[in-house]
Amino acid sequence: MRLLVVGGGITGLAAAWEASRPRDGAPPAQVVVVESEATLGGKLRTEQVDELLIEHGPDSFVAYRPAALQLIDELGLGDDVISVSGTRTVFLRSRGRLHPLPAGMGMVLPTKLWPFVTTPILTPTDKLRAGWDLVLPRQLREGKDVTIGSFLAARLGKGIVRRFADPMVGGIYGASVDELSLDAVLPSLRADEKAHRSLMMASLAAGRRKRNTPGANSPFRTLRHGLGSLIDALSEQLSRDGVEIRIGTTVQSLAATAAGGVEATFAAGPESFDAVVLACGLPAAAQLLGTAAPRARAALADIPLATSTVVNLVYPTDAFPDPVTTHGWLEAEAAPISGVTVSSAKWAGRAPATQVLIRAFVPGRLGAIADAPDDELVGAVTAHVSAVLKATKPPQQVRVSRWPSVMPKYTVGHRDRVATVEAALAQLPAWRVAGSPLRGVGVPDCVADGRRQATLALTGALTRAELGS
Ligand SMILES: Cc1cc2nc3c(=O)[nH]c(=O)nc-3n(C[C@H](O)[C@H](O)[C@H](O)COP(=O)(O)OP(=O)(O)OC[C@H]3O[C@@H](n4cnc5c(N)ncnc54)[C@H](O)[C@@H]3O)c2cc1C
Q1: C-beta of 61 in contact with ligand 1 (< 6 A)
Q2: pLDDT in tens, 393-414
């Protein structure tokens, strides 16, 4: 079996890793990974500048989805996994001030009652309105997807949506909760309403269970030498295992062969494979499916894309009147950023003691500032961050990493679009789409999906070969 993996990001490399393991006594597949850029990793890009470790894309992943940790263990990197440093202190900037997120605040709901009742982030009216959730009947209709924002507003009121859900969920998915799909992004909320009716009661009960689980503090993890070290370890071991990795090579088009396989066209000419995993991000996957699966292409093209920019700022430590120990903050009001991570406080080994490394996010949904040229963008972001932290000196270094139209937005109806892609691909069992377009944008989701789709592509090709012979 020859498997073509299009894309050398984390999804593609995880797919190659899975396909190159021996399976059920059969020899591992011959795997070719093709990456159009000169380097592997896609959005996982770590830069080491002297003692600074700068992440241009993702900087961490959640541990409660185990696929990333499992892959890291298989690669022998388990000792490099680190948790957040010190006590997790995250703020929400609201009405011009930084307020600590109430202790036990989950993604949208409190897991502890008292810090929620006493937080100054919500007005007394907001809190009273949130309390209605305890008595309201169920709001969701079976089988009808809605936006996360409308569901939470109906149950808990707009205060929680604007002050917690939008900054927190919107910050992760690069989109507003007023467009994101409940069923695709937070299906657990539907299950909670079904089981407990009240979301508050469900969340507080989950909080009690969690407090009895040791080590359940911050769910975030990263690697001591940055997420790029995962890509380095993967690519080294894949090459050692005989996987062929071609960088600086683009798959220009794909066609289905009469036998159900794949003919890929490269600048150097066509080449045949038994199966293909498209791990090349949404726009490229849609384009490559164009001729062989036009219905899948159309469903993919219906998924909107978000733009995101990361601005890394390096300040001298003595620019601040007080040590910057917070892990970061989220913006609950108009600002040129959606929030920051103070990487040097959150993770060990990101910056020397003389420097503070801050990662600010400028999602496309903030409007004109996200599209502004670098000097204007950096000026606005620096002025804002400096003002919030009362910096007396400017940053010494700045890195702008732009990710234009790359993050698929799982808007209402996303699950139907996934089903349409699946139905269209049923005709091509050895062709699979993996990674962020369909089943989860987080690094662990991409790892799990890359591995699963590699297995499905090879199984599809084998079944087809057996039926044909
Ligand atoms: C700014 C930012 C911050 C993020 N932060 C986090 C975070 O903290 N935690 C988290 O879990 N997730 C985070 N994410 C999401 C996560 O990084 C991505 O969803 C994930 O890395 C996608 O990986 P991938 O391999 O599927 O795609 P990509 O990394 O996009 O890789 C696809 C690769 O395919 C290549 N390619 C495209 N077309 C072709 C072609 N025709 N031929 C050959 N190669 C091709 C591209 O060059 C690219 O290298 C973040 C994303 C962004 C943009």
Answers
A1: yes
A2: 999 999 999 999 999 999 999 9
